[in-house]
Specification:
The complex is a heterodimer of chains A (259) and B (155). Chain A has a single domain, classed as Alpha-Beta Plaits (2-Layer Sandwich). Chain A is 24% helix and 19% strand. By secondary structure, chain B is mostly helical. In chain B, 41% of the residues lie in helices and 0% in strands. The chains are: A alpha+beta (259), B mainly alpha (155). At the A-B interface, helix 1, helix 2, strand 2, strand 4 and strand 5 of A face helix 1, helix 2 and helix 6 of B.
Chain lengths: 259, 155
């Protein structure tokens, strides 16, 4: 059998294309798919969290639970959630125009609780638990050059660690400082909203251990979820609303000084 | 056929080469991009299942108070102000214990440290939350649990 160049190209291309198609089909068969899982319908979920600053006592159990549940490195820098203490000095009546700088501390990310500090007369003080806001229009996923981080159809921002090339661009892009670089895997890492728990009907580790229900996880696509009532009954705000990130962690009692 | 350009076949060859190049790229792409990439968006859909398969460490409070397990403790807890405090909030992550009680045991709780974590007086805590000055509240060197039952703290 003799082939001229044109025929060779046509047949060769056909062969390659068919092999590609077959490999695609096989990969589909092999792969376990989340929407096929019996107990979790991805289309019926849109996860969000409600955090009540007026209830947070700064015990740091959430930080500890997160580290244990998700095998996070112990240093404070590697924290998927952390608690900040804000101390806001009072306005000086003699100079009301003076800038007021809040004092913020978070020893060991708040994991061991907070030490007592000398009181500033007239100051107000409160705790702010922070975690990934799982933004609907997240800046971090938009900058990923390889499609390794994404906002899933159920509203959770996740990282495909087998796909991440470790360029750290997303760590810079997050306006809330919620991402860090994991030196064990050489990939970016962040809060998964305990995706392995919430898809099995459990709540996140931080909500599970919170002794005062300052953190409440909710599914906004479920009309009977208690989070709807909480969001309706309280004056809630998200962090940095001016950035229009579509943040889904709503705070009750959020002071304007919180950044 | 009138030649518009000198050596026009060169251009034809170039276009053909480009076409073959693009085709080759598309073929190679089908091998390197996973089949489920792009199913829900610009990412590999299978990663959702990978993350779901991560191991649990906290069993959740629902798994403690069953009959023949910690029925009494769960009932005591539910009767008092600590009712909404999860078991693992104080006792630590115990999914392994819930799966096989013989293998994994709860860590011993150091009450004085643990109670103070929530109830030591701090200015930043909500005013209506029960707080004490630990040093003056504790008379002597006693454990908190000598006077208070951690499951029924107000009883």
């Amino acid at each position: 059998m003799s082939l001229d160049r044109r025929e060779f190209l046509a047949k060769g291309t056909m062969f390659l294309l068919l092999t590609g198609a077959a490999s695609r089909a096989w990969a589909f068969i092999e792969q376990g798919r989340p929407q096929d899982a019996p107990d979790y319908d991805i289309a019926l979920h849109w996860w969000a969290m409600y955090i009540d600053i007026e209830k947070c006592i700064g015990c740091g159990r959430c930080v500890d639970a997160c580290k244990v549940e998700n095998d996070v490195l112990p240093e404070a820098y590697y924290s998927r959630t952390w608690v900040e203490r804000y101390i806001i000095p009072p306005i000086d009546p003699a100079d009301p125009m003076a800038e007021i700088l809040p004092i913020v501390d978070s020893p060991n990310a708040g994991r061991d609780g907070f030490p007592a500090v000398p009181a500033i007369a007239g100051a107000k003080s409160f705790f702010v638990p922070k975690l990934c806001n799982h933004c609907a229009d997240s800046p971090c996923t938009q900058v990923c050059p390889v499609g390794a981080t994404f906002r899933g159809p159920d509203g959770v921002v996740l990282i495909d660690k087998t796909w991440c090339v470790g360029c750290r661009y997303c760590i810079q892009a997050c306006p809330y400082g919620c991402r860090y670089f994991d030196p064990r895997t050489n990939t970016a890492d962040k809060c998964t909203l305990c995706y392995h728990r919430i898809t099995k009907g459990l709540t996140t580790a931080c909500c599970e251990v919170c002794p005062t229900q300052a953190r409440v996880l909710g599914n906004l696509r479920n009309p009977d979820d208690p989070i709807h009532q909480l969001l309706k009954e309280h004056n809630v705000q998200v962090l940095k609303p001016n950035l229009a990130t579509g943040a889904k962690v709503s705070y009750n009692g959020l002071d304007g000084a919180v950044r | 056929m009138p030649q518009r350009f000198r050596d026009a076949e060169h251009l034809v060859r170039l276009v053909l080469l480009m076409f073959v190049g693009v085709l080759l790229f598309l073929v190679i792409r089908t091998f390197f991009v996973p089949a489920d990439f792009g199913e829900f968006g610009h990412f590999r859909a299978g990663t959702l299942q990978d993350i779901r398969n991560l191991p649990l460490h906290y069993a959740s409070r629902g798994s403690c108070g069953e009959a023949d397990c910690h029925e009494e403790e769960a009932a005591a807890l539910a009767s008092d102000t600590h009712a909404k405090v999860g078991c693992e909030s104080c006792h630590g992550a115990l999914a392994a214990h819930a799966a096989d009680p013989k293998l994994a045991k709860a860590a011993t709780v150091e009450a004085n440290v643990l109670c103070a974590r929530c109830h030591a007086s701090l200015a930043a805590r909500p005013k209506d939350f029960p707080q004490v000055e630990i040093e003056t509240h504790r008379e002597g060197e006693g454990e908190c649990t000598e006077c208070h039952d951690s499951h029924e703290p107000t009883s």
